Amino acid sequence: MTTRSWLSLYALLIRTSIKSRMQYKFNFILASFLAALIQISEFLMVAIVLYKFGAIQGWSMHEIAYLFAIMTLSKTLYRTFGDEVHHLEKYLVNGELDQLLTRPMPVLLALMPQKFRIMLGEVLQGGFLLWWSLHGMMAAGQVGWSAVPQSLYIIVTGAVILFSIGLATATFGFWTTRITELQNLTEDAARTAAQYPLTLYPKWMSSILLIIVPVGLVNYIPSLYILRGELGVWVLPALAGAALLCLGISLKFWQFGLTKYQSTGS
């Protein structure tokens, strides 16, 4: 099959998954509202501290909100289209991956749309924080309207980077089967740490968040240019290159991991 045929099939699987989820509209609306409430409450705790002390190592409340917003929206984009990558463990434990291996299409393409998520709550929360932070910084003259398309751009590159981290982490499951603890470290903990300026952390930790688990490339590095005019315009194309590099490495690792997969036999 051609690439166009694979993409058409992927789109069909997504539409099928959406239809199945929208059969329970009330549950969807309630879950979206609760998700937005939880996400907002997390930032409000930080906002209270910022309101009292003014800034965190020179980063204002609007700038911290911007970091939160970019990370939230990048994660949402990744988990909307690739959420089942994050849940590969259940396929390995229950033997469900065997079913995907028998399908006449790439395993990853069959896996990703299995339970397509419409993360409305996260979109609302992240979108509100992005609007509020940019509006505040525009009013203060810190950024101009060019920050809007630049922000949308880094949300996409950030989603690719987060997907790559998630895929590489999931691939370790072909050897260990259980990957929840590793995901807590490489995805959840690292992403939470990157919601704040990396200057808060020791150099060894910030280096890990920029090189080993490069969540700092999602929001911190681009924010230095977009919000503060630091580093230079080369940051934006460099981010695209970094995202493609991360994606290429994770896909190669995934293909290698598949060759080591051992069926449960169930």
Helix and strand arrangement:
Layout lengths: L2 H19 L3 H29 L7 H26 L1 H7 L2 H5 L5 H5 L8 H20 L7 H25 L1 H4 L3 H14 L9 H10 L7 H7 L8 H24 L8
Helix pairs in contact: 2-7, 3-7, 3-8, 8-10, 8-13
Would you kindly provide a written description of the structure presented here, covering whatever features stand out?
With 266 residues, the protein is an all-alpha fold. Helices cover 73% and strands 0% of the residues. The chain has 13 helices and no strands. The chain has helices spanning 3-21, 25-53, 61-86, 88-94, 97-101, 107-111, 120-139, 147-171, 173-176, 180-193, 203-212, 220-226, 235-258. Helix 8 (147-171) runs antiparallel to helix 10 (180-193). The chain is globular, with a radius of gyration of 19 Å.
Q: Give the oligomeric state.
A: single chain
Sequence of secondary-structure elements: HHHHHHHHHHHHH
Estimate nothing, just give the exact number of structural domains: 1
What overall form do the CA principal axes indicate? globular
Number of helices: 13
Radius of gyration: 19 Å
Low-confidence stretches are: none
Number of strands: 0
Structural class: mainly alpha
Report how far apart the termini are: 30 Å
For the largest beta-sheet, the strand count, sense and barrel status come to:
none
Helix content: over 70%
Strand coverage percent: under 5%
Average residue pLDDT: 83
